[in-house]
Design goal:
This is Bacterial surface antigen (D15) domain-containing protein. By secondary structure, the protein is mainly beta. About 5% of the residues lie in helices and about 50% in strands. It has one domain: membrane protein fhac: a member of the omp85/tpsb transporter family (Porin). The chain is built from 3 helices and 20 strands. The strands form 3 sheets. A 16-stranded antiparallel sheet has the order 1-2-3-4-5-6-7-8-9-10-11-16-17-18-19-20. It has a two-stranded antiparallel sheet with strand order 12-13. The chain has a two-stranded antiparallel sheet with strand order 14-15. The longest helix has 11 residues, at about 10-20. It is globular. The two termini are about 25 Å apart.
């Protein structure tokens, strides 16, 4: 059994999960905490951590977070780690900075860099739906991902007035079933750079993807959040459409892809004295790369307009097909379903447990889930519904100081996986 996460999200998962369970440091509810009301930040904490996995070995690191960084709604997050296998990783994120208090823009950035040693990569046909775990290529690689974000809160629904507050508050009333009369809608622009460079020129399999070791471009997101609670939704929906475009360069082809992510939530009410809350949560994800079979001239040679595996449509990891490692499957297109049964027991003992009693833990949640999905080299609903891979498992989730932490176990056709991560998967 291995603990696996998507490479880009590893730092976020490690930093935030261990921040919520520090062995040292102060929680915001600590009566002895230093008063920082006159400082440039509202609250801050740093914590060392250590863990061990088959893929990364023994890891030690440091994570830190700053809340209210110059502005009440802004925050900073940083993390770094090293392992006894020689792997290292750094991450820095700045979130929700507003150029104007009364404006509609929120700005941020994320910077990630890592070097992985003796890591499993799935390349070419080894990333396809018919591949197996034996197709993994063990290699060393440098990875990087840099991104800026500019989110514009549209003057619709709940965000007609006080847009920044409306976009960031965790709870809101559902007042309709269209973006113009309910929820918060936003348009976000994310220029990015992403790379993966293998070291020591390992023997790599033939691939139908681009062989470029870096890409850059623009991701555009149209998002409609019509959930009644962003931390623990019990009704409503969440819709997100993403368009990603890489204009190409002299050494690589251009390409573009689209993604649709749709979630619904239904409240089943209480179940006697056993459960205070029951919720059915359902998610559909689908994506395609329309430029896949188009060609263009790159350095005098005709090449397909396709991304490399690390930037392609992918399944596996933290959110879809959760028993598989991050990016286990890659292709032109994908279709994925996730179904969860979430219950909130009336019995809630966490507030009296050691360590937990240092923090505000208003609820915990038990979850049973199942995922199904696959990738393909054409966008055909018939093909995408055949020979789908699956994952099933259970999770325990709880809110700690406003952060939802999830610990989940997933079983599948290749391996079983245990993860600790933050936020609901959808």
């Amino acid at each position: 059994m291995r603990l696996m996460t998507s490479h880009i999200s590893k730092a976020v998962a490690v930093a935030t999960a261990f921040f919520c369970f520090p062995t040292v440091g102060a929680a915001s509810g600590d009566d002895n905490q230093e008063d920082t009301s006159s400082s440039w930040y509202h609250d801050a904490a740093a914590v060392p951590f250590a863990f061990s996995t088959d893929s990364m070995g023994l890891s030690i690191g440091l994570a830190g977070v700053v809340k209210g960084a110059g502005q009440p709604q802004a925050s900073l997050l940083g993390a770094g780690l090293v392992t006894n296998k020689g792997t290292w990783m750094t991450y820095f994120g700045a979130y929700n900075f507003a150029p104007s208090e009364q404006g509609r823009w929120l700005l941020g950035t994320e910077l990630y860099s890592a070097n992985y040693q003796d890591f499993d990569y799935f390349l070419g046909a080894g990333a396809g739906n018919d591949s197996s775990a034996d197709d993994a290529v063990i290699a060393d690689a440098n990875e990087a991902w840099y991104q800026l974000s500019a989110r514009y809160i549209l003057p619709w629904g709940s965000a007609k007035q006080e847009p920044i507050k409306s976009a960031l508050i965790p709870t809101r009333k559902i007042t309709g079933h269209a973006p113009w009369n309910s929820g918060v809608s936003s348009l976000e622009f994310r220029p990015f750079y992403q790379s993966r460079q293998f070291e020591h020129s390992p023997s790599l399999p033939t691939t139908q993807f681009s062989t470029a070791d870096s890409v850059w471009g623009l991701e555009t997101r149209l998002d409609w959040d019509n959930q009644n609670n962003t931390r623990n939704p019990t009704e409503g929906s969440h819709t997100q459409v993403k368009l990603t475009y890489d204009p190409g360069a002299s050494e690589r082809p251009s390409w573009w892809k689209w993604e649709l992510n749709q979630s619904w939530f239904w409240n089943l009410g209480q179940w006697g004295d056993l459960f205070d809350q029951q919720v059915i949560a359902f998610n559909v994800y689908t994506a395609d790369t329309p430029s896949w079979n188009n060609r263009e001239s790159v350095s005098g040679q005709e090449q397909y307009q396709r991304p490399p595996e690390f930037a392609a449509v992918r399944l596996g990891g933290l959110y879809r097909l959760r028993s598989y490692q991050g990016g286990r499957f890659a292709g032109r297109s994908a279709l994925s379903y996730s179904l969860e049964y979430r219950v909130m027991p009336e019995w809630q003992p966490l507030g009296g447990w050691p360590v937990f009693d240092w923090y505000d833990v208003p609820w915990w949640q038990w979850v049973a889930f199942v995922d199904a999905g696959r990738v393909a080299d054409s966008y055909s609903l018939s093909t995408l519904h055949q020979d789908m891979k699956w994952s099933a498992g259970g999770a325990m989730r709880f809110q700690v100081e406003g952060v939802v932490v999830r610990a989940e176990m997933a079983w599948g056709q290749e391996e079983s996986t245990f993860r600790v991560m933050v936020n609901q998967p959808f």
